[in-house]
Amino acid sequence: MIDTSDPLHHVYGADALAFRFNRNGVLIAPPAYIAQALPNDFYTRRIGLLARGHATVHDVEATFGRNHSLATRQDGFIWYYALSVYNAFEESGGGRR
């Protein structure tokens, strides 16, 4: 996740979606949405459609595309998606004085 308050990225950042699969490519944990501020309704509705134990890598790719990062685990793997965000509140200093 890239923080929008980071001076090097000023107002631009990234939220993250994470999907944990078993070795067969079946979702084994609820999807995680890590948001810096308010979660985007578009993404929360989409991940709500993916049922643990039923959704597969094909379902996730059909919904979010192939632009993901991969982390392997003994019991399977995790896919991470970075979601670009813009925080106009940070543009004005985020209320800091």
Quick take:
21% of the residues lie in helices and 31% in strands.
Describe the structure.
The protein is an alpha+beta fold. 21% of the residues lie in helices and 31% in strands. The chain is built from three helices and four strands; from the N terminus they run ββααββα. It has a four-stranded antiparallel β-sheet with strand order 2-1-4-3, covered by helices on one side.
Layout of secondary structure:
Elements: E1 12-22, E2 32-34, H1 41-48, H2 57-64, E3 69-73, E4 76-86, H3 88-91
Antiparallel strand pairs: 1-2, 1-4, 3-4
Unreliable residue stretches? 1-6
Largest β sheet strand count, sense and barrel closure: 4 strands, antiparallel
Report the portion of residues in β strands: 25-35%
Number of distinct helices: 3
Q: Structural class, judged by helices and strands?
A: alpha+beta
Sum up the overall morphology in one term: globular
Keywords, separated by commas or semicolons:
97 residues; globular; alpha+beta; 31% strand; disordered N terminus; single chain; four-stranded antiparallel sheet
